[in-house]
Amino acid sequence: MIMEYKYDVTLSFAGEDREYVEKVAQILIDEKIKVFYDKFEEVDLWGKDLGVHFDYVYRKGAKYCVPFISKSYKDKIWTNHEIKTAISRSIETNVEYILPARFDDTEIDGIRPTLAFIDLRKVTPEKFAHLIMKKLEKEPTIPLPEQLQEDEEKFYLGVKIFASINSKKLEGVGLGINFTNKNTEHRYINEPYFEVSENVVNSGTNTFFLVDKTAPVSFPNKLEYGQSVSVTYKLKQASMDMWEGLPNDATVQSFLTTSLGEKFKSNKVDVKKIINLMKELK
Helices 125-135 and 18-30, interaxial angle, to 10°? Predict the structure, then answer.
């Protein structure tokens, strides 16, 4: 039998963590998700016996319960009441119900350490709201804002020297990127673009795409957890001639975006290093 619930998800949290939780709740409401969040229920709660009402909300009223676990959460009377009620529902039904999210490593009685959780220290409210929607099998309509991240273990830019396939002769210099998906879910990555630290003479811009690859790689490119993509772009002599006018400390860097609203930037590479390599190959 398919159960009908008043709420898709109910949120349990300490007041100290309200700023984060309210952002999550507002996104869910904007996405038409039925969410129990106390501020949205002030009029309905007015005059009710909260002990009785919260027993209904956290034991029978929602498909899922998300406790936002923290030291403050463990210390509060009401959050202890809420999580104990939610745990009793899990015991009674023996189905997936509690979806823990952690601000720290505080242990809560009744929440087994083997129960998978989301680490909120690594996730924005926007991203967490989208994870809840995914759990509810609902597609978000509001895109995630880009979150700029820099991590060389995920996204690395290097200078590559490539050779002719037939003659094996060194042929030119390229910019090579390697990106690894170290998040727990798949995402599509878009074509990377590049940026030099100064505007290029005669172009009026410092941002550009490269199109000439040493091997075919298509974008958007789907990456599962742990998968990587590498691509090397050939640099033209005409570009190097324009870069000659850049300051000696000029650098180039690569950026890419994903289908989950993330934006990554690579390490920086000295432009002079690239120019000198091109000259050596002449």
Answer: 50
Contacts of 112 (CB under 8 A, 6+ apart): none
| Residue 254: pLDDT over 70 | yes
Q: In angstroms, rounded to a whole number, what is the distance separating the alpha carbons of residues 237 and 243?
A: 10
Nearest to 10 by CA among 126, 92, 101: 101
Closest listed residue to residue 9, CA positions, set 1, 18, 31: 31
Structural domains counted in the chain: 2
Domain region containing 264: 147-281
Helix (H) or strand (E) holding 209: none
pTM of the shown model = 0.52
CA distances in angstroms from 115 to 3, 82, 277, listed in the order given: 24, 18, 53
Q: Give yes or no: residues 40 and 122 share one domain.
A: yes
The string over 164-197, giving b where at least 16 C-beta atoms fall within 10 Å of a residue's C-beta and e elsewhere, is eeeeeeeebbbbbbbbbbebeeebebeebebbbe
Is residue 240 included in any domain, yes or no?
Answer: yes
Share of the chain above pLDDT 90, in %: 38
